[in-house]
Each structure stands twice: as C-alpha cells, then as structure tokens.
Design brief:
By secondary structure, this protein is mostly helical. It has helices spanning 27-34, 38-41, 50-66, 73-93, 96-100, 117-123, 129-135, 139-144, 148-167, 175-203, 211-227, 244-261, 265-271, 276-303, 309-328, 334-348, 373-407, 422-439, 443-471, 476-496, 505-527, 546-559, 564-587, 595-618, 642-651, 658-668, 674-684, 688-706, 731-737, and strands spanning 413-415, 418-420. Helix 10 runs parallel beside helix 12 (244-261), helix 11 (211-227) packs across helix 14 and helix 25 packs antiparallel against helix 26 (658-668). The termini are far apart.
C-alpha cells in the first residue's frame, strides 16, 4: 500500500511515451482550495491542455466537496466541478488576478501543488541553473518529465513545511485545512509512485528507459525510505511510510507476469493456439533476453544506489514462469507434451547455460521449485502412464517388422562373423532412448522407466518366441540370429543396468534354450534316418557314417555365426545326440553278429567312434578374424569313451576282462541302468553263469553309485547319456536275464 488514500483513475500521470502528451495540474482550482499566492498561479495558457483539465477535475473535486459540508454529496460534487471549471477558465483567459480574489480569506502560503518561487526561497536548494529551472516547475510537470528526484524534493519540502505549520497551530481555526492540503500532497506522492510503476513497465519494452531515469527511480525509492522510516507516533497519514521499495518490487513482478503471459498470445490470435514446443521455445527466448537486458542495462543503473535489481527481476521472472507452467500443466496431453514440460523445467530452464552467459546463472538454492511438488509428481505419473502404452506399442511394432521380414523370406545379415537380426538393436535403442530421456528428468523417473521397459520386454520375449516358432520361418539362419539377439540382450542390458533388470534373465535364457532345442530338432530330423544303417551286414564293409558326418559339418557351419558360448552348447548337444543315437541303434540291432562278424562289428564301432570324435573335435566354431578366440570343436570329451567301451565288451576275446570293461563303463557313465547292461551282455552271448556273475557285479556297482548321495539317492549328474536311451525287451535280453 503506497499511501493511506487510493489514487483516483484520473490522477495517474502519463509518461512521455504514452499518447496524449504531458499533463499539468489545474492551477486555479488547486490554488483556490489551498491558499496559494497569485504569483504561484501564473502559467502560460499555451501549456494547458486536455490532460491538465482532466487532472484538475480529479484532484480538485475532493477538496471542493470538503469546503461545503452542509450540502448534499451529489450537489456538492456538481458544484465543485462547476467551480473548478470556472476557475480553470479564469486561469486561462483572465490571468492570475481573478484567481487571487478567490483566496482573500486564506493565509498567503506557497501552494503545496505548484511549488513556485516562494518554495525556492524556503527550500534552500542552491543557485545552479538546472535546479532553479526544476524549482520553477510544478511537481506534476516534474513527474511528467520524469525529473523524479526534483519532484520528490519539492514534495518532501511541501510535506515538511505543512507538518511545521501544523506543529505551530496554524490550522487551529480551520482543522480541515490541514487535511485538505495533506491530501493534495498524498495525491502527488501517489502520482509519483504511479510514474515509478510506469517506468518499470517500460524498462523491458523495445524502446526501454534511459539509465539516468532508472538511477533517479532508485534514488527516489531510497530517499522515501529515509524520509519515512517508521509510522509517526501521532498517526499522521502524511508521514506514514509509503513502502516504495515494495511498490517497485510489485511493479517488477507485474511486469514479468505480463510479459510471460503475453508469450504465444499473438500467434494464438493470428493462427490459433501454438504448439507447446513453440510456446516453450518463445518463453525461454523471452526470459533469456529480458534477463540479459536486466544484467547489462538495468542492473548497472540501480547498482549505484544499491537497489538489488538482478535478484528482484530474477525472482519475478522465476515466479512468472512457474505460474505459466502451472497453467500449462493441466492441458498437457500425451507422452510428448508431458515430457516437453518436464524436460523444459528440468534441463532447459534449469540449465546453467540457459542465459547464454558464463557469468549469469539461475541459482538453485534460493529460488523455489519451478513446479510445485504435487504438480511435478502428477506430471511424472501421467507421463509414465502414457509411456507404458507407448513402449508396449513400440514392442508391437518391432514384432510386426520382424514378421514382415519372415514373410518376405529375408535371410539375416552376417556382420562381424555373426548372424545379425535388427531385433537386438531395436530393443537396445528403445530402452536406452527412454531411460536416457527419463534420467535427464530425475532418478526416480529413470527407475520407473527401467521397470516399465523391463516389464514390457519380459512379456514380449515369450510372445516373440511363439510367433517365430509358429511362423514356419525358423531356419538355421533365423534361429542363429535370434539366439545372438537374446544373448546380447541378456548380457549387455544386465551389464548396463545392473540391479534393475534381473527379471529379464529368466525369459531370455528360456528363449535361447528353446531356440537351441528347435535348432537341434532340425539336425535330428535330418540325420535320424541315417542311423538305420548301423549294425547291418553292409555296415561291416562300407563307410555308412560319411553322409551323417557331412550333415553334421554343414550344421556346424551355421554355428560359426552364433555367439561362441551358445554355439558350444549347441555343438555339445549335437555331439551327445549323435553318440546317443548310435548307441541306441547298437543296443537294438537289426542283426546280431556272431563269431568273426561280432569281432568285425566291434572293430567297426571303434572306427566309427574315432570318426565321430575327430569330426566334432576338428570343427571350428568361430572363423572371424576379429573374434577374441576361436573355439576348436566340441568340449564334450566325456562322450568319446561311450562307444569304445561297448565295442571292447563286444570284441573282447579274454572274457575275464569283460568285468573290467563294465566297471569302466559304469564309472564313466553313472546314468547307465541295469537294462542297458543286460542289452550289452545280450550282444555278447556269454554263458549263463558268466552273465549272472557280470550282472550281479554290475548291480553292486550301480547300488554303490546310487548310495553315494544323501539319503541313498543317486547324486546329481552333470552328464546324461544312457538315461535317454530306451532299451526294448527282446528275446535275447530275456534269455540273458534268465
């Protein structure tokens, strides 16, 4: 509150830039009501205009009404306005003589409004010409011309003299005279305050305000604080503090709010509502430009007086921007607009480089949050809700793109020696992009985005796996490419975001395992018929395994383009499958050999075992020159003894050594069962007693192996071979058992 009395709409003084030109008060009426000497009323008639007339009406009417307490208010106002008009005309046409006749009964004191030559003598300002020129003008003229310091000095002199007259009991006979004259001074104080507000409004306009005017504004604010440090003890409203510093800060705040609120208004009126991105860009440009102007032009003008212009404007614009964002927040729709608001508040406005000047920065601590915590939390909540739907739709789009490639029968590319599918790259980019964007806002939003991506990917992997296997496009190349993709996701995502995406381990490992299984099923379906030639008569004299090994080599060539850990697992499974199927065919032969054919069959089995072992050992799984290491063949060397052990039992001429071969077989393959021992002994056709002793010894070994585990259970086995070989019950096996 600048003064105890509000300024009437007609009392605001216009700045030189406003239309209508400069204005001066109506001398005749003010003098008639204030006891002004004739000399103080003399003014050039050419200077009186419409502005002077309007101000005279607004300033003089309250005092005119106070001189006629017995009349009704309406008539009093009309008569005062009529008297004012008559006084104004006499001041223009008749000069000061007629005006003097109206104040014959009032003591001849200098006018509190005009500030004429008698005030110059009382003020003791000095003999300088500019100061004399300023003292020869009225306070209103000084305010209009923005000679703020001179205007305040005259007002202060009038206030001091009026208070002195009150103290000397000059108004004892007419107590209302002091109130009328004090109200005149208050009105001029309010006019000066209004001009200060106008200067603040124009400071950031394109035309700007001269630095000297800003310095005078700061001087006047400081002078008013020194002139009215505290309310007077007698409650005199004339000497009440006017709080012009607060008035200046409020004007700065209103100026910032008006300028920020005007952003986008022109474009909206011309072309409709602008986009949020454009509006925020314009808002940032306005705030940046205005604060740079404050730092370069406004702050130096205030600095000499000690008025904190930079901090005041900074806080004013911060509050205005915060209010504008609070208004924009409810209207933000969709993931993009919500992120625009969050990103602009956190990274653009809050950036140290926002003002494009190294010595300017928005302090983080003193300023309140740009968005209220509840508004920020609601924006993040809405953003994550839309983000979840967006990420899910992105995964759907990735699946559709892969399905279109399957339909077009596009083979995967080979990059750096590996089958490469866009799946891994697309998912990496999707997750990294959204997580990086969220991390720029806050750590909480980053963690939430990671959880959303992890949950969506965990549901996507099984759907993708099912779609691929049901599409009929699961060739060796595609399966190898998607095994690589899942392996990359499993390793890189977990390494990049440790502690957050562990739940992805299980579905990705399951998908890799299923792709491996499907890949092996293709090999099994190709080579399964080739095992039928084992243990037939022609098998004894021909190399029947050559076609089978050729298919294994062709299969292994695909594994050279698969990630080495997974390729090694697949190759070991292929190795185990070949040995297992070979033994299954041996244990259920189409023809049982006797005599020389049995010995020759034993030798043939040893030769086949050597060929199988060498084939799998000589395969190179990674031929790419940039590979960190090349994996030479299958690492399942434990399989190499299975076929030779059975062959030695069949071909052993010294029957007592068969016991030793059985011990080696059971110790090397603990998963062997009694049925397998019976089938092997049936191939050899030993005598009843020998078979019984060997079978009894084998059962003891099997029970010992089973009892080695806790609770008499068979210990967990890492290698499984015989357990997956079914043994049919034949007549020979029954005879051996009996």
């Amino acid at each position: 509150m600048l003064s105890p009395r509000k300024v009437t709409p007609g009392t605001e003084l216009r700045s030189p830039q406003e239309p209508g030109g400069p204005a001066t008060p109506a001398w005749g009426t003010l003098g008639a009501n204030s006891g002004v000497e004739p000399k103080a009323h003399h003014v050039d008639s050419t200077r009186l205009g419409l502005g002077t007339f309007r101000r005279a009406l607004s300033w003089a009417s309250p005092r005119g009404s106070s001189q006629r307490p017995k009349e009704d208010p309406g008539r009093l106002q009309r008569s005062s306005r009529g008297s004012l008009l008559q006084s104004f005309r006499r001041a223009v046409g008749q000069g000061p003589a007629s005006a003097q006749s109206q104040v014959a009964t009032v003591p001849k004191e200098p006018s509190v409004v005009t500030g004429g030559t008698s005030q110059q003598a009382a003020s003791g300002v000095g003999p300088e010409e500019p100061q004399r020129e300023a003292e020869s003008k009225s306070v209103a003229d000084l305010i209009t011309e923005r000679q703020l310091v001179a205007a305040f000095k005259q007002l202060r002199h009038q206030e001091t003299r009026l208070v002195a007259e009150k103290t000397s009991h000059t108004f004892a006979q007419d107590p209302t005279a002091y109130a009328r004259r004090a109200m005149d001074v208050c009105l001029l104080y309010d006019g000066l305050a209004a001009e200060l507000g106008a200067i603040v409004r124009e400071t950031l306009s394109p035309e700007g305000v001269p630095a000297a005017t800003l310095t005078e504004l700061a001087l006047v604010v400081r002078a008013e604080e020194e002139a009215h440090p505290a309310p007077p003890a007698d409650g005199d409203f004339l000497r009440t503090p006017r709080h012009w510093r607060q008035h200046w800060e409020d004007a700065v705040r209103r100026s910032a709010q008006d300028r920020v609120r005007a952003v986008g208004a022109t474009a909206e009126a011309a072309e409709g509502a602008p986009g949020l991105a454009q509006l925020l860009a314009e808002l940032g440009g306005l705030v940046r430009g205005d604060l740079q102007k404050v730092h370069l032009e406004v702050q130096p003008a205030y600095a000499a007086v000690g008025l904190p212009a930079w901090e005041t404007y900074l806080r004013a614009f911060h509050g205005a921007v915060a209010q504008r964002l609070q208004e924009l927040a409810p209207g933000a729709r969709g993931c993009e607009q919500l992120y625009l608001l969050l990103d602009w508040a956190a990274n653009i406005y809050g950036s140290p480089d926002f003002l494009d000047a190294p010595d300017l920065a928005l302090p983080a601590e003193p300023l309140p949050p740009l968005l209220a915590p509840d508004v920020w939390a609601q924006l993040e909540s809405d953003y994550t809700h839309f983000l979840e739907s967006k990420i899910w739709s992105c995964f759907e789009r990735i699946l559709q793109l892969e399905q279109s490639r399957w339909a077009a029968a596009e083979a995967p590319e080979v990059l750096q020696g590996r089958y490469r599918a866009p799946l891994s790259t697309d998912i990496h980019m999707l997750v990294a992009e959204h997580v990086k964007a969220a991390s720029a806002i806050s750590a909480e939003l980053e963690a939430t985005t990671l959880r959303i991506c992890g949950r969506a990917l965990r549901l996507f992997v099984p759907r993708f796996e099912k779609a691929l296997l049901e599409s009929g496009a699961a060739s060796e190349q595609h399966l190898g490419a998607y095994i690589n993709a899942c392996e990359e996701l499993r390793t890189s995502l977990l390494d990049r975001f440790p502690g957050t995406l562990e739940e992805l381990e299980k579905p990705l490992v399951a998908a890799i395992h299923n792709f491996q299984k499907h890949l092996l099923q293709g090999l099994q379906s190709d080579v399964q018929p080739l095992f039928r030639v084992v243990c037939i008569k022609s098998w004894l004299t021909q190399d029947m395994l050559c076609p089978l090994m050729d298919k294994v080599k062709a299969f292994a060539r695909h594994l050279t383009h698969v990630a080495p850990p997974v390729a090694q697992e697949v190759l070991q499974e292929a190795h185990r499958f070949v040995v297992r199927e070979y033994l299954a065919q041996v244990l259920r032969p189409h023809k049982r050999f006797r005599g020389e054919e049995r010995v020759r069959g034993s030798q043939k089995m040893s030769e086949d075992a050597q060929a199988i072992s060498e084939t799998f050992q000589d395969l190179v799984l990674n031929l790419h020159p940039r590979a960190s290491r090349s994996l030479q063949g299958s690492e399942a060397t434990w399989l190499n003894q299975a076929i030779p052990c059975v062959a030695e039992i069949l071909g052993e001429t010294y029957k007592d050594d068969i016991r030793r071969h059985l011990e080696t077989l059971i110790q090397g393959f603990p998963d062997i069962r009694r049925d397998h021992v019976l089938a092997i002994l049936a191939l050899r056709r030993l005598g009843r007693r020998r078979n019984h002793r060997l079978l009894q010894h084998s059962q003891n070994l099997l029970r010992a192996a089973a009892g080695a585990g806790p609770g008499g259970l068979r210990p967990a086995r890492k290698h499984v071979l015989f357990e997956e070989i079914p043994v049919p019950v034949s007549v020979d096996v029954l005879i051996t058992c009996i």
